[in-house]
């Protein structure tokens, strides 16, 4: 089906969201909480667009609005620009310590105001870390409390048994709000300290014991072998070839 | 039928041109550490061999991926990583039995052989023809011929 985005006719797939359609057509819509692996969450509200349907206008979040009929979408009207500026201002006030939001605050030319802020806060509650943990199958963290007290945490803020220390939450976080500290052979994240697994051959610390076991449980391709880092695993294969060649000659 | 990368260690001179070409094509710099193919030299026995992703039919990397970010390209048969979908949990790097799937911290992506979209550059630049890109049936035929040749030699020795 065809819809109109910013005055241009664009081919869209029935049921796709406005954001997905725009991404395919190279039309830029800013997002913070969107990740291709989970789809839209409608949390950060930065992807708001103006929609015209049967002569009526309204604003919707592009990441969650599925295209099911003929609509006209505008992605950068003055109203949308103003809305986005407000959203960035509010997100910045929520997480003023985040470098990304400080940058966006300047880029969108937001005005500072007297809203209360926590100068150390970096989290914008986009839920990406929680989603990532859930997809991986650990479910070690979640959003807790309600309203202004809402935050991401492990159960009772204690070390979670389910956490494997993979660090996907810290890497997916758009505002670098999750601290993962590596010191010596220890990795700390979410109030849990992990011992890093050393390669049996070269001693390189390449993962946590918990993550290795978690992966081995999912697929035993690595469980049969010794605990080797990627380069030593390659070398082991090369040595097998060497042994084979030596046996042939 | 999709072609496969065929490595012939007996032809490899250990020059590491493939590593440089691979890293240059994919990262824009000549850095063997960021190459997706690695050459191992065994000087004492005079053998060198490149190790590269096998594009396994039942791929451990694909099986452990929690979000289905690793899929097979229908045209080339290569296992491709969708970097937009990937969560960087690095389970694929742990699961790969060949160590051919690695995390590249510089560009923050999982990097593995993608067969250069059907025109592997390591094959183009390998000076000794140790890496070839060919039909699996033909590759197998070469192996069979090789084996038959050995049988002939043994037979001649006996007779």
Biggest sheet of chain B, open or closed, and with what strands and sense? 2 strands, antiparallel
Number of distinct beta strands of chain A? 11
List the uncertain runs of chain A.
none
The helix tally of chain B amounts to 5
Q: In angstroms, what is the radius of gyration of chain A?
A: 24 Å
Reading side by side through the largest sheet of chain A, how are the strands ordered? 2-1-5-3-4
Please tell me what the overall shape of chain B is.
globular
Oligomer: heterodimer
Order of helices and strands of chain B: EHEEHEEHEEHEH
Helix content of chain B: 25-40%
CATH class of chain B, named Alpha Beta
How many structural domains can be distinguished in the coordinates of chain B?
1
Q: First CA to last CA of chain B: what distance?
A: 42 Å
CATH architecture of chain B: 2-Layer Sandwich
Succession of helices and strands of chain A: EEHEEEHHHEEHEEEEHH
Q: Summarize model confidence as the mean pLDDT of chain B.
A: 91
Name the beta content range of chain B: 15-25%
Give the class of chain A from helix and strand content and strand pairing.
alpha+beta
Radius of gyration of chain B: 18 Å
Query: Which spans of chain B of ≥5 residues are poorly predicted at pLDDT below 50?
Result: none
Distance linking N and C termini of chain A: 65 Å
């Amino acid at each position: 089906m065809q819809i109109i985005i910013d005055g241009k006719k664009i081919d869209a797939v029935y049921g796709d969201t406005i954001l997905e359609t725009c991404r395919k057509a190279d039309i830029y819509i800013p997002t913070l909480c969107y990740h291709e692996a989970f789809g839209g969450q409608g949390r950060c509200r930065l992807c708001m667009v103006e929609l015209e349907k049967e002569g009526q206008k309204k604003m919707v979040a592009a990441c969650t609005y599925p295209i099911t009929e003929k609509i006209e979408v505008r992605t950068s009207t003055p109203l949308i620009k103003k809305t986005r500026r407000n959203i960035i201002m509010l997100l910045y006030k929520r997480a003023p310590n985040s470098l990304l939001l400080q940058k966006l605050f300047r880029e969108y030319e937001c005005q500072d105001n007297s809203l209360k802020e926590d100068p150390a806060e970096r989290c914008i509650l986009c839920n990406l870390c929680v989603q990532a943990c859930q997809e991986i199958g650990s479910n070690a963290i979640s959003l807790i409390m309600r309203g202004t007290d809402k935050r991401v945490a492990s159960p009772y803020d204690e070390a979670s048994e389910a956490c494997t220390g993979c660090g996907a939450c810290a890497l997916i976080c758009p505002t670098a709000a999750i601290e993962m500290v590596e010191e010596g052979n220890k990795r700390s994240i979410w109030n849990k300290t992990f011992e890093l697994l050393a390669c049996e051959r070269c001693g390189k610390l390449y993962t946590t014991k918990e993550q290795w076991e978690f992966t081995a449980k999912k697929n035993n391709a690595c469980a049969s072998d010794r605990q080797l880092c990627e380069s030593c695993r390659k070398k082991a294969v090369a040595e097998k070839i060497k042994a084979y060649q030596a046996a042939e000659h | 039928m999709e072609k496969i990368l065929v490595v012939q260690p007996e032809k490899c001179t250990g020059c590491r041109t493939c590593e440089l070409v691979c890293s240059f094509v994919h990262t824009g710099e000549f850095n063997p550490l960021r190459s997706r193919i690695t050459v191992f030299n065994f000087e004492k026995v005079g053998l060198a061999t490149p190790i590269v992703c096998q594009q396994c039919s039942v791929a451990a990397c694909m099986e452990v991926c929690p979000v289905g970010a690793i899929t097979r390209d229908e045209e080339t048969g290569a296992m491709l990583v969708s970097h937009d979908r990937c969560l960087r949990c690095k389970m694929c790097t742990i699961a790969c039995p060949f160590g051919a799937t690695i995390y590249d911290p510089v560009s923050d992506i999982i990097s593995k052989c993608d067969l250069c979209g059907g025109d592997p550059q390591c094959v183009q630049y390998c000076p000794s023809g140790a890496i070839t890109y060919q039909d699996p049936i033909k590759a197998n035929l070469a192996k069979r011929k090789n084996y038959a040749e050995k049988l002939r030699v043994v037979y001649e020795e006996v007779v």
